[in-house]
Amino acid sequence: MTCERWLRKIDLYLDGEISEAESREVELHIDACPICSSETLARSQLKRNIHLAGKAFAADPAFRKRVQESITPRRLRRRWFWIYALGALCCVLAVGTVVSLQWTRHQQRQQLIGEITDLHVATLASENRVDVVSSDRHTVKPWFQGKLPFTFNLPDLQHSEFQLIGGRMTYLDQSPGAELLFSVRKHVLSVFIFKDSAQLDRLLRASDRTQKLSFNIESWNNDGLRYVVVTDSNRSDVEALRSLLIAAEK
């Protein structure tokens, strides 16, 4: 079976237009096929760039005037008709506004998740993945002091399957943060830590799980910090590392 069949499904997969079973089938193929994995990442970035280049639609004042004129009564005895019509129009506009806001928030959330996923992919592709290379948490944590406007704790991994690889500085929307790399059974997990903000809290809920391409992503906030884990490892590994990180902050 060639990749031609899978390449035709990539856009449907990215747009969420196929069933969950088909999505899983595509994800398994992407994991195993470098060509389709690269094409999927490229199309995802293209879709996000097209969205960013778009302009918000604003209703033409002339169009609004025509709508209002179309419901204006020609005779006084029909005044109740146009009152009802105007009320219905207001309801439609209100519903449309709510739907538009929800769609905008969804797009912003997908864009943010895409940016964080891209940071993880860029790290994996880099020759120098970390700025400070050490499996010792007492070496990695002090390296960030003075570089970040916040502090964080790292867990003791002695009795776990995880190993600390090191850390590096990263930026999200011009805000500095830490990217910590962990490994487990040949899988690499990026743990991003940023100072929590109203925007991050709005787009990434208190405990948020999702998937992007072949990556498992989980986000949570703790003591004013926003944590995001990105990895191609399984969900149980993400949960285990999350528990260790939360315990370290107590």
Topology overview:
Layout lengths: L3 H11 L5 H13 L1 H20 L7 H10 L8 H47 L6 E2 L3 H7 L19 E10 L2 E10 L2 E9 L2 H6 L3 E6 L2 E8 L2 E7 L3 H14 L2
Antiparallel strand pairs: 1-2, 2-3, 3-4, 4-7, 5-6, 6-7
Helix pairs in contact: 1-2, 1-3, 2-3
Rg over CA atoms = 24 Å
Tell me the name of the CATH class of the largest domain: Alpha Beta
In CATH terms, the superfamily of the largest domain is MucB/RseB, C-terminal domain
* Low-pLDDT residue spans: none
SS class: alpha+beta
Our measurement of the CA-to-CA distance between the termini, rounded to an integer number of angstroms, reads: 52 Å
CATH topology of the largest domain: Phosphorylase Kinase, domain 1
The tally of domains stands at 2
Which architecture of the largest domain does the CATH hierarchy give at level 2?
2-Layer Sandwich
Largest sheet: 7 strands, antiparallel
**Number of strand segments:** 7
Helix content: 40-55%
Strand order of the largest sheet: 1-2-3-4-7-6-5
Q: What would you note in describing this structure?
A:
By secondary structure, the chain is α+β, with helices and mostly antiparallel strands. It folds into two domains: 4-53, no CATH class; 106-248, Phosphorylase Kinase, domain 1, CATH 3.30.200. It contains eight helices and seven strands. Strands 1-2-3-4-7-6-5 form a seven-stranded antiparallel sheet, with helices on both faces. β6 and β7 form a beta hairpin. α1 (4-14) runs parallel beside α3 (34-53) and α2 crosses α3 (34-53). The chain is globular and about 80 Å long. The mean pLDDT is 81.
